[in-house]
Each structure stands twice: as structure tokens, then as C-alpha cells.
Amino acid sequence: MADQEVLDPAAPPALHLLSAFLATEPGESILSLARACGGGSLTETVQRFVWDHLLKTADGNGCAPYMKKFLKKLIMEIESNHGNVLDELYEQYASYMTSLKEDNIVKENARVCKCLSFLFPSGCSELQSCARPRKVIVPLQCSLNMLEGDTGCSIWPSSLFLSELILSFPDIFSEKSCFEVGSGVGLVGICLAHVKASKVILSDGDLSTLANMKLNLEMNQLNTETTLSETTSENPRVVKCIHLPWESVSESELQDYMPDIILGADVIYDPSCLPHLVRVLAILLKMKSSFTKKSEEGCENPSNHIKANGVSQGKDPHLNGLDRSNSYANSVISSTGPMAYVATVIRNIDTFNYFLELANQADLTVADLTGVMRPLDLLPYMHSYDRSTIRLFSLSCK
Ligand SMILES: C[S@@+](CC[C@H](N)C(=O)[O-])C[C@H]1O[C@@H](n2cnc3c(N)ncnc32)[C@H](O)[C@@H]1O
């Protein structure tokens, strides 16, 4: 793109630059998007946009260390290419130099507010729900330390994927009671509330994660309930956040919840937790199955009917692109019985195979939906998010 008078913040590529900055993407990634706005270089128009839309308005919202680092990279690149740096950029950098001490920049458990913008492609007339907005913005407080709160205070890629899935196929989740395990920062729950799930129950085993999750829900204008046993209201603006360590939660504690859909993002990584996780998933899946079967056919235990033997592939591997995904999605919507969607990066194949073995022992069917149910790419500006590494599985019992 040639240098021009102003860049439109509502249209790509400037929209992507702005969204990446609000999501606190790495400096290199912001610079590459900025270059794309200037046809390959950091022109004065691009610098003016950066100043007006990225730096001037965001100043003072707690992201100063991030902005200082980014400004340094930006100025260095412009100077090394013998370009003219806008005075405002120099002045802002100088003010950070005096106001921010270096050791604040990488403070151990420092929190940042990331604003994720899910950008819907234009011309959505072929999609399921055309009335949805073009952009869903989710502010989230997260830690810069991936391990804080037993890993639950930062955003993991599989929750980005599940969020895209929910926003791409709202009809699967709307009017459904949804229960998430290991919810972390609460992003998936915010998306579920957005598509009007009838109930949203989020859970985590770590108390500091739970406190951070509640804060995030409130930042997104959602009310929270925290008791385990009280009946959950069917109000999509109310999200239940419960302390649920997989090791100690009892079947009777879970019996109040008969979710239609169970979700989990990046929860398959610690082999010592997996037997407990699978137990919780099996209880939640069988709760409603047995209830439904009992009312339909008497008191048979559904777990006696189907045994999993490893992972079965999605039935139609040719499904590809929106229309075909929609037809698969429709078959999911119309399927009876509860279903779990687990998105995961397989970091250790032995750990994942152990999960499959445990699911098999618990009479759960696992299907690989990765190539079958593909969400829209709603985070096109987020270079740090590599969706090709994420696998999607469904778990069910019959
Ligand atoms: C890798 S993080 C993923 C968080 C979130 N789902 C995401 O994708 O961003 C794993 C989450 O599972 C939770 N978790 C780990 N072990 C758990 C256990 N035994 N019981 C309950 N929650 C657990 C952690 O507290 C953390 O929130």
C-alpha cells in the first residue's frame, strides 16, 4: 500500500495493526503489520496512525512497559532505514525513559490487559447467523508469567481456538447449558455468553485463577455466581465460576449440573491429573445421558453400550470450508446426548495416548474433528497464534 493521507482504523490492514496492538502481540509482529500498512516501510502516515490510534489513546492504561519496548523497536527500525521519526514518538519514548524503571518491565507476575478483537470477515451472508456483529471485543486481564495460577492466568492457544469455534458456530452453543473444565482466564465462557448459551458454568482448580477469571467476567459486563450447588439461573449474563479440582470433586457435587456441552481447552498436559480429568468428563457426560435414557427407555446405564477404541476420525473428511462445515455442525446440533469439545495442542504424544486410553476405559467415544469442524479465522492479525497446531476432539458416551 502506498503512503496516503490517513489510514482507516476500521479496515485492514490498519484494523489488524490496531487489533494486534490492543492484544499486546509481540513488537516484531506489530512492526510487520505496520510495515504492511505502509507498503513495506514505516512511512510518516504509518507513524501518525501509530501515534494517534495506538499510543496516544492507550497511554496510562497499564501497558506502558509494553509500549516502551514497542516504541524502542519502532524508532530503531525507522532510524536504521534513515527515515524521519515523528517528534511525538521521540517525546513519548523519552517520557517512558524517565518514568519507567527497567526492572518493572519484566516483573515476575505482572498483569496486562489484553483486548482481543474477534474480526468477522465481511460478506457473512452465507454464514449461519448474519445478524452477528462484525467485531467482538473481549478485554482480559492476564499474567505475563505463563505458569502463574497453575497456568490458568494466561491465555493458551486452544482457548482462542474454542472461542473462534463458538463464535463461528453459535447455533451449536446457543440455548445450551455449557460447562467448561480448567477455564483459566474465562475467555471461552465470555464467548459462550456472547452466543447466548442458556447456562455458562466455568470451573478451575486454582483459586488465584478463579479470582482472575471473575474479574475478567466482570470486565466483560457479566455477573458471576460462585457457589457449587446452588441452582444456576438461565440467564446468559450470569456466569457461574466454581472451584473444581478434578482430584477431589465428588459425583454428587456434580449432579446439579447436567450440561448439554462440556468444553476443555489445553487441559491435557499433566499425566498425573488425567485420570481425574477423565473421571470428571465421564461423570458430566453420563449424567445427562443416563437421565435422557432413563426417561426414554428405563434405567439402563448408557456407558454399557459403546466402547471407544482409540480415536475415530470425523465421518466426512472432505468437509472443508463454510458450507460443508455448517452441514457437519448441523449434524452435531441435531445429535442427542451431551458432547464434550476438547481442543488441545499435543505436546507429548505419550500423554495424549494415555488420555485416549483412560477415555476408552471410561466408555467414552473420542472423535477427531480437527479437519471437519473448522472455525472461521477471526484472529487474522494474531501472528503469535498458530491454529495449525491445535486439534479438536469430541467426547461422548452412548
Ligand atoms: C494450560 S491452562 C489452560 C487454561 C485455559 N483453558 C486456556 O486454554 O487458556 C490449564 C488450566 O487447567 C487448570 N487445571 C490444571 N489442573 C487442574 C486440576 N487438577 N483441577 C482443576 N483444574 C486444573 C489450571 O488451573 C488451568 O487453568
Give structural notes.
With 398 residues, the chain is an alpha/beta fold. It folds into 2 domains: 14-105; 111-396, 3-Layer(aba) Sandwich (Rossmann fold), CATH 3.40.50.150. It has 14 helices and 11 strands. The strands form 2 sheets. The protein has a 9-stranded mixed sheet, with helices on both faces. The chain has a two-stranded antiparallel ribbon with strand order 1-2. α9 (187-194) links the parallel β3 and β4 (199-204). α1 (14-22) packs across α3 (44-55) and α7 (157-168) runs parallel beside α9. It is elongated. The model is unreliable at 297-326 (pLDDT under 50). Residues 150-152, 155-156, 158-159, 182-185, 204-206, 209, 244-247, 265-267, 273, 276 line the site of S-adenosylmethionine.
